[in-house]
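Key result, reporting period 2: structure in, sequence out.
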């Protein structure tokens, strides 16, 4: 490409002198503009390809610098398809040149990450042995959160061979058919740029995704010569390295300060659930004689025959969110001891319609009656107690003679409630809030405590039953408000627990109730202050989940002494696995909203399963870019601006036509389709040279000129018509109607949503989850914001077993 001395190219080059960036930029843009102009020019030729024969179409192709390969197929249809592919070829070539220019500016900064294809997704090749050796050496400054992870520079990656043919027999530039390479992939070593790049949708076929490595540029270069679309936006990602231990606190490595670089802080720890699952047996004492709830470093004093249930296979998912939860410091890491916990309801379970999980060792699941809608609570998500919802423990709570503490967070924020409403009822112990008097009432046997608490305020309530001092003490926001002598009052027994109402399921609560738990311990004042001031609770879910990805075996290792390594990457700007509703056969239309608006068209998906005889079929409904949700079995709409959706668990087929007779008839007996919609049937026929249109009356009768009788069974589709005379010879009788597709979906089937948003989501939390999507390891960090939907977060987690 040449330029005059007065062109902007030379002016920029002269002004910037040694800086070649802008001249190269102008050159790349100019080339792209010329290619775009060329693409516009191609349009005037395309009317000719359907009138020209073989040689004429080939000449058109040659005008754009492309000669079709006619070795496999020299038919006119094939050559025309080759001509039709030219705009795609030009667009792909333009895309490739733009990408290549951008990446030339980055340069090779070092061999940090290698990648390989494991059959499901691309995996970073981390040299865990060197990484863990470095961690054990003590040479890493653990006050810095984003510690470098060593890459495996010798790891091989899969490079797809340059096959000329497809499994289906079509060559690579076939414009109509998905293609699959007909030879095995080759394995070749590769190096990666220091900045980690990833692609969202380059070419995805059978779950094969292309990630950036050296041979990727070859793919783009070759791919741009073909008509396959290359809708690729390459994007830089952010890597978060998380270092923690299995002791349940977040500042193990440096107890005097948190991981801090200026104002950057990262906290990470294993969850209460991890500690619960790892507890071997029902041990009570330590090797130094202290009890489990003492705030000291402890080790168990005997084997007890138990083994940890946490294995490498327990880590099933990596997920991210845009909320944050406070984690427990080292000095308080036994504040929620699994052995000292009778019951723990976080009330933030995902996708559970009828139950809430008890995260204690007793597994006393709660049964929900009424609505189960999640809202933002105090420590995370919680159930919306709307004066309709109540929770009842599935089993009686066995209350021992030990000292007990009942704890819960609540906010009486209802604007239309009055009178007394019960927060919980455990028979001998109850709590209620009176919206009229703005008072909290605590009932213990025959004793009553009343405390004034204004509405629309967050409160932590802790009720202590001290069996040693024979006292009942009530704390609000860690401050003592009332004390009773309970000498002689018996409370040991077995009782059901009601949340959101009393035991008669009356006086139901309306407002925020979040995180209810019972422990066989009395907190110290420092512990009570710590829990309240920091809003501490156990972590079982992300505070505000947005995306989840499965962890494959290649992404996990436990082969190194005292360490577990986990690494994966997650797309940003994408919401997936978002619970929409649980299918109820009596409800056919569901209305809801995604967690964000400003959605990107063509990226809204609804996942569900249906039955086909004995088979279970995975289904995906997608949007058509115009706000319609399309699928063979369900339908609906999505408002991209607000995120509001309507999902119908059926699909109406419009203006469907079926020939009932091909010649003269006087009687018709047949079937249209199942579930014909009333009032939509039209029958076209000709008698004595006159064309007529009959219709159904919406009540099962077919009426029209020349019809003696007619009926339709809307459910079975069975139709019967008796004409007054024969229809004309050589004419058809045609039906047109609408019918409804009703898929076979099992009651309770969850429908989940995936979508992308233009909003810049600020990712602040990351978790490793088990098979039930409960958090085993949690990290929270400063917001990571991305400019576009094609970014990602990569994370390497290093978990030290202590």
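The corresponding designed sequence is given below.
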């Amino acid at each position: 490409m040449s330029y005059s001395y007065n062109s902007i190219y030379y002016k920029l080059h002269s002004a910037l002198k040694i800086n070649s960036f802008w001249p190269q930029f102008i050159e790349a843009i100019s080339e792209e503009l010329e290619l775009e102009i060329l693409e516009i020019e191609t349009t005037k030729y395309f009317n000719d390809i359907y009138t020209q024969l073989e040689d004429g179409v080939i000449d058109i192709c040659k005008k754009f610098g492309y000669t079709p390969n006619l070795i496999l197929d020299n038919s006119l249809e094939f050559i025309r398809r080759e001509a039709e592919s030219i705009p795609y070829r030009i667009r792909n070539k333009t895309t490739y040149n733009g990408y290549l220019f951008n990446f030339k500016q980055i340069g090779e900064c070092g061999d940090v990450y290698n990648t390989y294809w494991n059959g499901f997704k691309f995996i970073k090749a981390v040299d865990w042995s060197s990484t863990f050796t470095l961690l054990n050496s003590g040479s890493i400054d653990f006050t810095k959160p984003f510690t470098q992870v060593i890459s495996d520079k010798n790891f091989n990656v899969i490079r797809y061979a340059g096959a000329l043919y497809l499994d289906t027999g079509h060559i690579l530039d076939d414009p109509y058919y998905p293609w699959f390479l007909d030879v095995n992939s080759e394995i070749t070593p590769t190096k990666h740029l220091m900045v980690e790049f990833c692609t969202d949708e380059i070419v995805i076929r059978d779950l094969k995704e292309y990630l950036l490595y050296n041979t990727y540029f070859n793919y783009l270069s070759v791919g741009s010569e073909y008509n396959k679309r290359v809708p690729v936006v390459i994007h830089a990602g952010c890597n978060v390295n998380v270092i923690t231990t299995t002791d349940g606190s977040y500042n193990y490595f440096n107890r005097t300060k948190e991981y801090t670089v200026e104002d950057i802080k990262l906290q990470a720890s294993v969850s209460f659930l991890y500690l619960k699952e790892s507890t071997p047996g029902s041990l009570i004492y330590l090797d130094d004689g202290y009890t489990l709830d003492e705030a000291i470093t402890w080790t168990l004093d005997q084997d007890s025959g138990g083994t940890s249930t946490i294995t490498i296979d327990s880590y099933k998912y990596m997920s991210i969110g845009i909320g944050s939860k406070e984690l427990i410091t080292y000095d308080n890491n036994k504040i929620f001891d699994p052995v000292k916990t009778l019951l723990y309801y976080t009330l933030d379970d995902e996708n559970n319609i009828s139950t809430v999980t008890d995260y204690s060792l007793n597994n006393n699941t709660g049964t929900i009656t009424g609505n189960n809608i999640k809202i933002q609570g105090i420590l995370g998500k919680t159930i919306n107690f709307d004066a309709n919802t109540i929770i009842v423990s599935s089993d009686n709570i066995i209350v021992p003679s030990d000292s007990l503490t009942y704890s819960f967070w609540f906010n009486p924020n209802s604007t239309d409630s009055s009178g007394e409403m019960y927060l919980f009822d455990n028979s001998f112990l109850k709590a209620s809030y009176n919206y009229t008097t703005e008072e909290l009432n605590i009932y213990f046997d025959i004793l009553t405590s009343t405390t004034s608490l204004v509405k629309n305020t967050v409160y932590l309530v802790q009720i202590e039953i001290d069996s040693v001092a024979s006292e009942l003490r009530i704390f609000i926001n860690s401050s003592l408000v009332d004390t009773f002598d309970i000498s002689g009052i018996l409370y040991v027994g077995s009782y059901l627990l009601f949340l959101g109402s009393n035991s008669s399921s009356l006086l139901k609560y309306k407002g925020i109730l979040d995180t209810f738990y019972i422990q066989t311990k009395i907190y110290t004042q420092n512990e009570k202050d710590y829990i309240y001031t920091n809003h501490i609770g156990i972590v079982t879910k992300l505070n505000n989940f947005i995306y989840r990805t499965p962890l494959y075996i290649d992404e996990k290792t436990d082969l190194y002494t005292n360490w577990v390594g986990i690494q994966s990457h997650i797309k940003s700007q994408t919401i997936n696995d978002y619970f929409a509703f649980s299918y109820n056969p009596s409800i056919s239309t569901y209305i809801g909203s995604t967690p964000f608006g400003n959605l990107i068209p063509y990226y809204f998906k609804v996942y569900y399963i249906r039955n086909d005889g004995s088979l279970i079929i995975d289904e995906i409904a997608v949007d058509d870019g115009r706000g319609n949700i399309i699928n063979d079995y369900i339908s609906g709409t999505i408002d991209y601006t607000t995120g509001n959706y309507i999902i119908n668990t059926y699909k109406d087929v419009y203006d469907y036509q079926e020939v009932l007779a091909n010649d003269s008839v006087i009687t018709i007996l047949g079937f249209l389709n199942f579930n014909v919609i009333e009032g939509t049937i039209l029958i076209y026929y000709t008698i004595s040279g006159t064309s007529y249109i009959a219709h159904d009356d919406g009540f099962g009768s077919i009426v029209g000129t020349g019809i003696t009788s007619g009926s339709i069974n809307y459910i079975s589709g069975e139709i019967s018509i008796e004409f007054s005379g024969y229809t004309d010879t050589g004419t058809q009788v045609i039906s047109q109607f609408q019918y409804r597709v009703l898929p076979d979906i099992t009651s309770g089937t969850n429908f989940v949503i995936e979508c992308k948003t233009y909003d810049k989501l600020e990712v602040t939390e990351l978790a490793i989850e088990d098979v039930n999507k409960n958090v085993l390891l949690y990290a929270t960090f400063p917001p990571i914001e991305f400019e576009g939907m094609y970014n990602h977060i990569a994370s390497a987690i290093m978990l030290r077993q202590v």
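The two ends are 65 Å apart (CA to CA). The chain has a mean pLDDT of 76. This case is discussed further under Risks and Mitigation.
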